[in-house]
Amino acid sequence: MYLLIIPIVLSLFLLFSRARNLQKAPFQRGDRVLLITAHPDDETMFFSPTIISLIRASIPVSILCLSNGGAYGLGSVREKEMMEACKELKVPEDNVIILDHPDLQDGMKTSWPEELVAQQVYNAVTKYKANQVVTFDKKGVSGHINHVGAHKGVRRYMTDRQYRSAHGTVQCFELVSTSLFRKFSGLMDLPVSSLFLGSNCKLVVNPFPGVTTKAMSKHKSQRTWYRHLFTLMSRYTMMNTLRKMERSQYGYMSS
C-alpha cells in the first residue's frame, strides 16, 4: 500500500511545484493546434492527454490522420470509429481529416514518401490556419514504421524552404518516446517525467482519463488484449511529454 502512496504523493508535489512552468508555452489562448497521426486510434491511445487538455483550455484542435488504418480491409470501419472517438474527445467533425491515399496505406512494412506527407501537412495547416503542429517523434512510441513516417513528413515540412516561406511562424512538437518500463507505468511515471523535463519540453497531464477510456471504446475493431492493457496501464493515456522540434537539428531542405 505504501509503495503506491509514496510515488503518488511525490508526483502531486512535483506537479504543483512546477505548475507555473507546466502552464507556459507552447500552447496558449490564440493558438490553433494541428495533430498529425498515422492511424485511427492513435489520437486516443497516444495523444488524448494533449487533446483533452487543449479542448478544456478552449484551444482549437484539428487532426490529420494520414491513413484510414485499412491494413486488414477495415478502413471504412475504422474511419467511422475514429469520428465517434473524436466526438468523445470533443473534436468537431469538421476538424478531422482521414486520408486514404494510395501511397499512404497502413502497413508494418509500408514506408511513406516524406514529400507526400509534408504536402498533406501543408494542406492541413493551411486549411485550419494552425500555428502549432504535434506528431510522433522519430521512434514513434511503438516503433511503427507509419508513426515514424508521420514524424519524417512533419520534419520535411518544417525544413523545406517552400513550406517555411508560406508557414514561417508554425512551430512543431513531437511526442517523446520512453522505455518499455516507463511506457507501461501509467501515472507512476509522473515523477520521472517531471524531474527530467527538458527546457524545450512540455508535460501535459490528462485532466479526465475517463474520457480517454470512453473514446477508446469507440474503436471496437481494435479491441485486442494488448490495446486494452495499453489503455489501462500506459503513461500515454495519462500524460504526454511534448518536445519542440528545432529546425537547427535538421537544417533546411531545398524544394
From TrEMBL:
Keyword Nucleus: no
Matches recorded under SUPFAM superfamilies: LmbE-like
This enzyme's EC code(s): 3.5.1.89
Keywords of this entry: Signal
Recorded superkingdom: Eukaryota
GO molecular function, one term: N-acetylglucosaminylphosphatidylinositol deacetylase activity
GO CC annotations, alphabetized: endoplasmic reticulum; membrane
Gene3D superfamilies: LmbE-like
Top EC class for this record: hydrolase
Signal sequence segment: 1-19
InterPro entries reported in the protein's UniProt record: GlcNAc_PI_deacetylase-related, LmbE-like_dom_sf
Pfam families tied to this protein: PIG-L (PF02585)
GO biological process, one term: GPI anchor biosynthetic process
Family assignment from sequence similarity: Belongs to the PIGL family.
This protein's name: N-acetylglucosaminylphosphatidylinositol deacetylase
Taxonomic source organism: Chlamydomonas eustigma
Taxonomic placement: Eukaryota, Viridiplantae, Chlorophyta, core chlorophytes, Chlorophyceae
